[in-house]
Specification:
Elements lengths: L1 H13 L28 E6 L5 H13 L3 E6 L9 H8 L17 H7 L3 E7 L1 H9 L5 H8 L4 E5 L3 H5 L1 H12 L3 E2 L3 E4 L6 E5 L3 H13 L8 E6 L4 E2 L5 E2 L6 H12 L3 E6 L11 E4 L3 H11 L4 E4 L6 E3 L19 E3 L3 H6 L8 E8 L3 H12 L3 E6 L11 E2 L1 E5 L2 E4 L3 E2 H20 L1
Parallel strand pairs: 1-2, 1-3, 3-4, 4-5, 8-11, 8-13, 11-12, 13-16, 16-17
Antiparallel strand pairs: 6-7, 9-10, 14-15, 17-19, 18-21, 19-20
Helix pairs in contact: 2-9, 4-6, 5-8, 10-14
Length: about 450
């Protein structure tokens, strides 16, 4: 019965002109509601306080989204004098919350939902008034009610006049909040909004706040404190200034693995060949062209807890690169002499010192996928091989889907066809578990 009442109240909020009695139907005739798709990425609730620095919070939304965060936003009454719910909502991609007694959200105690359905609460700008209310445990509006109800980490970015920041009351409130476990970023020194005012009190810049939020989210994550190396994409082996040897790798799987590792809290270094992809959020990217450059970058990136070699490295390169374009000549076909490229996977896996605890290779095969992958794992000396069928009909090369087999010393696991992002998350979960077990 309680669920039916909630449905009635929800519908009443959406259609205030209809009589509530008209909405009641027996449970047997009610239709099931479609499930809301679950999105991935850290969930951040951004509370925008009422100060001139509120305009920077619109940039902060973008900065957090660039790091893969999913945002919800609360505007205080004072904040709405500086930025509008329409502007914030357009950037967040959903409605902005402003009222504690909003009938469209409070039918099921919406402020408690907001407080719990998040991984981190960010308050930016955190005004002197908001700091005082937080320190005193007040809850007279939506923002303070959520802050009092949440058990998630809280990050504040104070912003106020230097004299207000230096006031004993603010100092006392800040001491109470830090004692309560609230994290603080800023403020910075500089010019204030008021003419002729300078000093300590400027809100930290959006990139600083986003970096602080990312750091907090990584605490306690599955790979927190771990260093992971990921190679991704193809390599280009030059023949002359115009031509090169390459392959059809898009880098999508490697970049997805790097993003999943970063989301799990790892310090990630991506060594990427030439790709047409944005950098994964929260990782260090080293761009290379050739297999030799990738080999050198991988060696330089060590030590690491795990190395995942997802790049499709060219097996051969031209023995000598022509300084000039090789001209086509009638009746004459140029001879291209090839030499082997360094074997990055085997080199790292066979290290006698500084070897990562877990070395994972990839095997892109067109036939006898599992048998070839098992042989490769033994030959290369790596711990795991992720094998897949890259024949033309599979659509894996350059596509968004993948169907892989995880080959380990214990056997073979064949995973169902799924998106490359899903493969990445599943692989990172397995790696996190393996590293944790190796530590015991």
């Amino acid at each position: 019965m309680e669920d039916e009442v909630r449905v009635i109240l929800r519908d009443a909020a959406a259609e205030p002109d209809r009589d509530a009695a008209d909405r009641f139907t027996p449970a047997a005739s009610s239709k099931p509601r479609a499930a809301t798709p679950i999105k991935d990425g850290p969930r951040i609730l951004l509370i925008i306080g009422g100060g001139i620095a509120a305009y920077k919070s619109l940039d902060l939304i973008r900065r957090l989204q660039e790091r893969g965060a999913l945002l919800r936003c609360i505007l205080t009454a004072a904040a709405q004098h500086f930025v509008t719910p329409l502007a914030a909502g357009a950037l967040v991609g959903e409605r902005v919350f402003t009222d504690l007694f909003d009938p469209q959200s409070e039918f099921d105690v919406g402020h408690i939902r907001l407080a719990r359905d998040t991984d981190l609460v960010v308050v930016a700008p955190a005004t002197a008034d908001l700091l005082a209310k937080m320190a005193g445990g007040h809850s007279d509006d939506l923002a303070t009610a959520v802050l009092l109800a949440t058990d998630r980490p809280i990050l504040i970015a104070p912003a106020m006049n230097p004299r207000m920041w230096a006031a004993r009351g603010t100092t006392r409130n800040l001491a109470q909040l830090t004692a309560d476990g609230v994290c603080v970023v800023g403020p910075n020194a500089g010019e204030m909004a008021e003419r002729g005012e300078t000093g300590l009190g400027r809100m930290a810049e959006p990139p600083e706040i986003a970096a602080a939020a990312e750091s907090i989210l990584r605490r306690g994550a599955a790979l927190a404190g771990k260093r992971i190396i990921v190679t991704s994409g193809p390599t280009h082996e030059p023949i002359d200034p115009v031509r090169y040897i390459a392959n059809r790798s898009s880098g999508k799987q490697g970049h997805a693995i790097a993003a999943a590792a970063a989301a799990a809290g790892a310090d990630v270094v991506v060594i990427s060949g030439p790709v047409n992809l944005p950098d994964p959020p929260g990782v260090t990217v080293i761009r290379v062209e050739t297999a030799q450059q990738m080999f050198e970058a991988a060696e330089a990136a060590l030590p690491a807890d795990a190395a995942i070699f997802a790049a499709a490295v060219a097996d051969w390169r031209s023995e000598s690169e022509s300084a000039r374009k090789i001209k086509k000549q009638p009746g004459r076909t140029p001879t291209l002499k090839l030499t082997e490229n360094p074997d990055i996977l085997s080199s790292v896996a066979h290290r006698t010192s500084g070897r990562p605890r877990l070395v994972v290779g990839f095997a892109a095969e067109t036939d006898d996928v599992i048998a070839n992958a098992q042989a490769k794992r033994i030959k290369k000396g790596c711990d795991w091989i992720v094998a897949n069928d890259v024949s033309a009909e599979s659509g894996v090369m350059g596509g968004d889907m993948n169907s892989v087999h995880l080959v380990t010393g214990s056997g073979v696991e064949s995973w169902p066809p799924q998106g490359k992002d899903q493969v990445a998350r599943a692989l990172i979960e397995r790696i996190a578990t393996a590293l944790d077990e190796a530590k015991r």
